[in-house]
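Long-time lurker. I teach an intro course on protein structure, and each term I like to show students one example going from raw sequence to a predicted 3D structure in C-alpha cell notation. This year I'd like something fresh instead of my usual example. Would anyone be willing to generate the C-alpha cells for the chain below so I can use it in lecture? Attribution to the forum is fine with me.
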Amino acid sequence: MSTPTIKKLPANSVKPPVLQMLMQKSVVTIYRIVAIITLYAVLLGVLAYGFVMGFYAINTSWAAPVILSPADDRSLDFTAKLVTSKQSLEDLKLDLNRLQSSITEMTQHRAALLALAPELQAAIAREKIHARATGPQLSQLDQQKQADNAKTQGVMAQVKQVETSIDKDLSAGLITKGDAATQRVALNQAQSNFTDSKISEVLLTDSVLDKTTTGTKSIDVLDKQAELHSEIAQLDIAISLAEKQIHEESQQVDRLKQAIATARQTPYYLSVSGGGKINFAFVPYDNQKSVSVGAPVYDCYLNMVACRKVGMVKQIFTGEEHAIHPIFRTDMRGSMIQMDLDRPESAKSKTVFLNRKPLFF
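-- Reply from a regular --
Happy to contribute to a lecture. Here you go:
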C-alpha cells in the first residue's frame, strides 16, 4: 500500500480564525467590563440616591433659599392689602378728627342753649308776674276809660248843636267867618280826641286780654321753650352717637395699626418696600431648632459636601408659610428667615445649612 501524502497548508491560512477568536474574546471581555461598570454605576447611583433621601430625612439643619420678587402673585396681593389697610386707616383718622370737631362744636352749642334755657324760663316767669300785677290795673283803667268815653259821647251830642248854633250866628252876622272857623276847628279837635280815646280804649282792651289770658304770644314763647329743650335733647343724642362712633373707630384704628405692624414683620413687606435685594429662606417646622438670629449659614457642593460659610441669619419671621420640599417635592409647612449673605449667589442654591456643617467638612 502506498502511504497517503499530507498536504501542507500555507502559513497565512491559519491566522484569520485566530484573529476572529481573539476579537470575539475582546468583545466579550469589554461587554463584561461595561456591564460590571454599569451595574456598579447603577448600584452607586441607587446608594447615592438612598443616601441623599436618608440624609434629608434625618438632617434638621437645612433650609431652602427663596427669592421673593415684588412682581410675584403673593407680593402683589400683599401690596394691595397693605395699601387698602393704610387707606382705610387714613380715612378713619380723618373721620375721627371730623367727629371730634363736631363733638366740640355740638358741646359748645349745647352749653349755650343750656345757658339760654334758665334765662328764657326766668323771662317767662317775670312776664307772668308782671301780667298778674298789671292785668287787674289795666282792667280797672279800661273800665274807667269806657266810663270816660260814655261821658264824652254825651258831650259830643252837644257838639252837633253847637255847630248848628255857629251856622245860625254866622248867618245872622253875630260872628265873623274867622270866629266861625276857629270854633269849628275846636269842635273838630274835640271830635278827633274822642275818636283817639275810643281807639285807646280798644288797644287797652287788647292789652288787658294779653295780660289776663293765655294768648298766641304766650303759646309762641312756650313753643320756643319746647324747641329749645328738644334741640338740647337732640344734641345729647348726637353727641352720644358721635362718642360711640369715635370709640368704635378708635378700636378699628388700633386693629389696623396692629395689622400693619404685623405686616411689617413679614418677608413680603421687606420684599416690596424697595430696600434693595433681600435674601430669604424657608425653614420647615422640624428644622426650626437649628435656627437662631446670628446663626451661620453654610452653602455646600452637591447640597451636602464641601461646605463653606456664606453668611448668617439676620431675622426670623413667625408667620406660617407653605413650600415644596426641594428634594422630595412634597408640601411642607414652616416659616421664613432673612439671611445676610456674603455670597449672594448662594441664594440660588437648592438648600443651605444653618448653625453647622451637615457632614463636618
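Some talking points for your students: The mean pLDDT is 80. The chain has three domains: 19-54, 101-240, 277-354.
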